[in-house]
TrEMBL record:
One GO BP annotation of this record: carbohydrate metabolic process
TM region(s), chain numbering: none
Organism per entry: Thermoproteus tenax (strain ATCC 35583 / DSM 2078 / JCM 9277 / NBRC 100435 / Kra 1)
Domain Glutamine amidotransferase type-2: 2-221
Active site: 2 (nucleophile), 596 (for fru-6p isomerization activity)
UniProt cross-references to CDD domains, sorted A to Z: GFAT (cd00714), SIS_GlmS_GlmD_1 (cd05008), SIS_GlmS_GlmD_2 (cd05009)
Name under which the protein is recorded: Glutamine--fructose-6-phosphate aminotransferase [isomerizing]
Function statement: Catalyzes the first step in hexosamine metabolism, converting fructose-6P into glucosamine-6P using glutamine as a nitrogen source.
Main location: cytoplasm
EC code: 2.6.1.16
Pfam annotation, one family: GATase_6
Length: 601
């Protein structure tokens, strides 16, 4: 949460407009306040306020600010309410040092008391402001800005990505990373730092992802990185990112979410094209020889993990599904000889990273499934499988779920092959998946708009299914909650009789996911129960199935195989959530209180 950016160029430019554009990119990471700081001859010029980037930038005239070195921040409040004073950048008493920060400085209270005792005056309630005063304090003691920056860093504990400017060394942006993501963009006569790759792509496609504990400074011609006092040779770590800046933009769609929903056929096709059979076979062997298997993830990634966990049952393999933030409860199980599949789109979700660290400390081998090359998760796992969804900007995950399911289905097939099972029908189905996803989009957009009209009139809905359909129901309900703010609850259909059905009355919407034909008859019993209470029955069903007759509204998707169906049957539910949010006037790309990547526990 929170997005940071810092850039230094070799000559003066329309820096305010450049910083505004960077903030627009980063806004999905937090959007309750925005601000910039530009190095000026007499100190740092700060403009910041609560509100969305576009309105703050307009009101404060970001576009009129000129300069060569500056930092910017978009905030998602952790310490302190979203107000003008709590917005970043934060400055020291002399207003010559400005700081932007993503993360939490855990020991800020004790440092703040110490600095107040030394006469420092604080303006905000944030943990971040202490950093500016700490640097000021060390400069007062005679240290150079760079030395003061390093000394200040040595005093803080917690998670951070920091960017700092100091008008005493006007051509530098100081930076540091611990647990929160930070990337250096390598330019020609400029360099920059940013929280994510799409933001860097506006300027350069050459990046150096920083590692935990690294810090340094950039000038327009120098990138200096250290770890524990020792310079790091980062030139060897420069990577060229194949995404274009265009790919990271909306490309004609009103929202990133809708664009990303429509990108799914392509994202699935890229993921299939990128499959590495040998690596899949190696991981299949690891899983088959594991004492215990864990599947770990948060949010949507966890639900993709559930699809895999349920799929394993067909091979008589039991896996323990673990919601990443709950890993502590399971720690006692972790042991040498076990294997974990850790799933995270961003590869930066702190709960998933912490779970992976705990697993590896106890000797568990970890296989990462992620969308971001050289993310923390990718670096800290034993083996990595990449989804190739391209950048996902919408806060609600869409194409990353379908590509995760695609990849995990391919791994499932590799396990089957290792066991001598004939998986050729599934392989054939996998080949058809991109086309089936395209067809599913085409078949359901109109129905989604129509059903959204009804859905928007309700405050609650149930999403019911059985078997591998359950994670689809969970994911469908999650989308509805996240972006339409309708209380949507997913339940195993059979279990719905044990409580949830008490709420059902006239026109209560109940969405059934019929992705496994072998469970159709049982699900139809549950449909009858809900229909008897005058619920509005909505279903996602195999194309052409006569189940349609029992439903008020039917979404149809061509049938492939129960596990692969999870990747396509979810699509109508994504569309339904999207159009319901639109009907209700919500912004689906920036749902309230949510962040794309959760880097605080
Ligand atoms: C946040 C996002 C979700 C996402 C979850 C896990 O809550 O809003 O859309 O599913 O994090 O993210 P990850 O990057 O680990 O898949």
């Amino acid at each position: 949460m929170c997005g940071i950016f810092g850039i230094t160029l070799d000559s003066e430019t329309n820096l305010g407009a450049l910083l505004r554009r960077a903030l627009e990119r980063l806004e999905y990471r937090g959007y309750d306040s925005a601000g910039i700081a530009v190095v000026a001859p007499s100190g740092v010029l700060v403009k910041k306020d609560a509100g969305k980037v576009a309105e703050v930038a307009q009101r404060l005239g970001f576009d009129h600010v000129k300069g060569a070195t500056g930092i910017a921040h978009t905030r998602w409040a952790t310490h302190g309410r979203p107000t003008q004073t709590n917005a970043h950048p934060h400055v020291d008493c002399t207003e010559t040092i400005a700081v932007v920060h993503n993360g939490i400085i855990e020991n800020y209270e004790e440092l703040k008391s110490e600095l107040i005792a030394k006469g420092h005056k604080f303006r905000s309630e944030t943990d971040t402001e202490i950093f500016a005063h700490l640097m000021e304090e060390y400069e007062r003691m005679g240290l150079s800005p760079w030395e003061a920056f390093k000394r200040a860093l040595s005093r803080i504990r917690g998670a951070y990505a920091l960017a700092v400017v100091d008008s005493k060394e006007p051509d530098k942006v100081f930076f540091a990373r611990n647990l929160s993501p930070l990337i250096v963009g390598v330019g020609d006569r400029f360099n920059l730092v940013a929280s994510d790759v799409p933001t860097v792509l506006d300027h350069t496609n050459r990046v150096i992802p920083l590692r935990d504990g690294e810090y340094g400074f950039i000038t327009s011609r120098v990138i200096h990185v250290e770890y524990d006092g020792v310079p790091v040779r980062v030139e060897e770590r420069v990577q060229t990112i194949p995404w274009s800046a265009d790919q990271a933009m909306r490309g004609g769609y009103p929202h990133f979410m809708l664009k990303e929903i429509h990108e799914q056929p392509e994202a699935i096709a890229s993921t299939i094209a990128g499959l590495e059979p040998r690596r899949l076979a190696e991981i299949a062997e690891m899983l088959l020889s594991a004492h215990k298997i864990y599947v770990v993830g948060a949010g949507t990634s966890y639900y993709a993990g559930l699809v895999f966990q349920l799929g394993l049952v067909s091979y008589k393999l039991a896996a323990v599904p673990i919601i990443a933030s709950e890993y502590g409860t399971y720690e006692g199980l972790f042991d040498k000889g076990d294997t974990a599949i850790a799933i995270s789109q961003s590869g930066e979700t702190i709960d998933t990273i912490r779970a992976v660290r705990a697993l590896r400390e106890r000797g568990v081998r970890v296989v990462a499934v992620t969308n971001v090359v050289s993310s923390t998760l990718a670096r800290e796992s034993d083996l990595v499988l990449y989804t190739r969804a391209g950048p996902e900007i919408g806060v609600a995950a869409t194409k990353t779920f379908t590509t995760q399911v695609t990849l995990l289905s391919a791994l499932h097939m590799a396990i089957g092959r290792a066991l001598g099972v004939d998986v050729s029908p599934q392989e054939a189905a996998l080949k058809r998946l991109p086309e089936v996803a395209r067809k599913t989009l085409e078949l359901n957009e109109g129905t989604a708009k129509e059903v959204a009209e009804k859905m928007a009139a309700n405050q609650s809905a149930y999403y019911l299914s059985r078997g591998v359909g359950m994670p689809v129901a969970l994911e469908g309900a999650l989308k509805m909650k996240e972006i339409a703010y309708i209380h949507a609850e997913a339940y195993p259909a059979g279990e719905s009789k044990h409580g949830p059905i008490a709420l059902v009355e006239n026109k209560f919407p109940v969405v059934f996911v019929f992705s496994d034909p072998s469970l159709k008859e049982k699900l139809l019993n549950n449909v009858a129960e809900m229909a008897a209470r005058d619920a509005t029955i909505i279903g996602v069903i195999p194309r052409g199935d006569d189940v349609a007759k029992k439903l008020k509204y039917a979404f149809e998707a061509p049938h492939l195989d129960p596990m692969l169906n999870a990747a396509t049957f979810v699509i109508p539910l994504q569309l339904l959530a999207y159009y319901t949010a639109i009907k209700l006037g919500r912004d689906p790309d920036k749902p309230r209180n949510l962040a794309k990547t959760v880097t605080v526990e």
